[in-house]
Amino acid sequence: MDMNAKSDLIGGNTPRPARIRSDASEVIVRWFGYIVIGAFAICCLLPFLLILGTSFTSESSVKKFGFTIWPHEFSTFAYQIVFENPKLIIGSYLVTIGLTVVGTIIGLFIVAMTGYALQRPDFTYRNKISFFIYFTTLFSGGLVPFYLLITQYLELKDNYLAVLLPGLLSPFLIIMMKSFVRSIPHAITESAKIDGAGDFTIFLRLILPMSTPALATIGLFIALGYWNEWYNAMLFLSPDMDYRPLQLFLYNVVTSADFIRNSAASSNVSMSDVPLETMKMATAVVATGPVILFYPFVQRYFIKGITVGAVKG
Fold first, then answer.
1. For the CA atoms of 109, 112, 118, 123, what is the dihedral angle to 10 degrees?
2. Neighbouring residues of 27: CB distance < 8 A, sequence distance ≥ 6
3. 159: Cβ–Cβ under 8 A, 6 or more apart, which residues?
4. End-to-end CA distance of the chain
5. What is the pLDDT of residue 17?
6. Contact, 218 vs 111, CB < 8 A?
7. Distance of alpha carbon 118 from the chain centroid
8. Half-sphere exposure of 50 (CA within 13 A, CB side)
9. Do 100 and 223 contact (CB within 8 A), yes or no?
10. How many CB atoms lie within 10 A of CB 220?
11. What burial class does residue 295 get, using C-beta atoms within 10 Å of its C-beta: 0-12 exposed, 13-18 middle, 19+ buried?
12. What is the radius of gyration, based on Cα positions, of the chain?
């Protein structure tokens, strides 16, 4: 008999049954968590499967059976209409990808610099500038002044900068970045200054590597904002332009089909073959498909960025 067993017998301790009960409770809790998370994942996946199945269904089948995950009558007519002009949709994809990549990189850099500067205790006007940024979350100048600013003063009508510039800064994201950078001890900045580092060097080599969780989150917000952008493009990019963002292009496709159907109905002409409902689902797949396909490739970098910056020392 080994020494641990002797000590257990002498002391009257019975750790083995307690250990067994602890292991059993851990297994139960773990499986309960798997079941809950799995059910939640299925609930999140079902709407997309419903959209995907309906997009490959004929319009008559949708009217008869409703939206279904598995198509009763398989049809690609909705996608044929969406991709009727491949050159336009490819150009729209390229415009959206370019705006998303460039806007995310520049916007993330500006938001990070602004949040870092506003939390510096040695920055004299940080409270006043923070007030002006927070003030814009409560009050807005309205659509007309914004439109005049872009078209009359900045002269960005029919220019992609009219879509790029408004999305670079967001008061909510600046406040989020400021709150996170505040958790980084100011002593790190002071010690770097003693070693002769400048403000920009401190920001690039110390603050940014330690702010990866906030950068990953804010970058995701900015990228999704640019990818889903259509309103500013509708205001400032005229139909005369060769290529406009993807969301606006798909929006115009759906509204055109809806207009044709309503016009035919008012003229007592049957237009039941116009796949309006299935076309809506097809445009949703076209808009979200690249994001879903691209996410598995960037997921590990996203998680790595969070875990690297989770512990600061």
1. -60
2. none
3. 236
4. 46
5. 57
6. yes
7. 25
8. 12
9. yes
10. 14
11. exposed
12. 28
Structure tokens at 310: 């989770």
Q: What percent of the chain has pLDDT over 70?
A: 81
The single-letter code of the amino acid at 17 is P
Of 53, 62, 38, 91, the residue nearest 242 (C-alpha): 91
Distant-in-sequence, close-in-space partners of 23: CB < 8 Å, separation ≥ 6: none
Torsion angle of C-alpha atoms 27, 29, 32, 36, degrees rounded to 10? -130
For residues 215-240, give the mean pLDDT. Answer: 88
Q: What is the mean pLDDT of the chain?
A: 80
Who's near 91: CB < 8 A, 6+ residues apart? 242, 243
User: Which residue type sits at 223?
Assistant: A
In sequence order, what DSSP letters do the residues of the chain get, joined into one string? --HHHHHHHHHT--HHHHHHHHHHHHHHHHHHHHHHHHHHHHHHHHHHHHHHHHHTB-HHHHHHH-S-SS-SSB--HHHHHHTSSHHHHHHHHHHHHHHHHHHHHHHHHHHHHHHHHHH-TT-TTHHHHHHHHHHHHH----HHHHHHIIIIIS--TT-THHHHGGGS--HHHHHHHHHHHHTS-HHHHHHHHHTT--HHHHIIIIIHHHTHHHHHHHHHHHHHHHHT--HHHHHHS-TTSS---HHHHHHHHHHHHHHHHHHHHHTT---TTS-HHHHHHHHHHHHHHHHHHHHHHHHHHHHHHHHHTTS--
Tell me the percentage of the chain whose pLDDT exceeds 90. 14
Pick left, alpha or beta for residue 155 (phi over 0 → left; psi -120 to 50 → alpha; otherwise beta).
left
**What gap in Å lies between CA 82 and CA 88, rounded to an integer?**
10
Res. 310: pLDDT tops 60: no
Residue 165 CA to residue 218 CA, distance in Å, equals 17
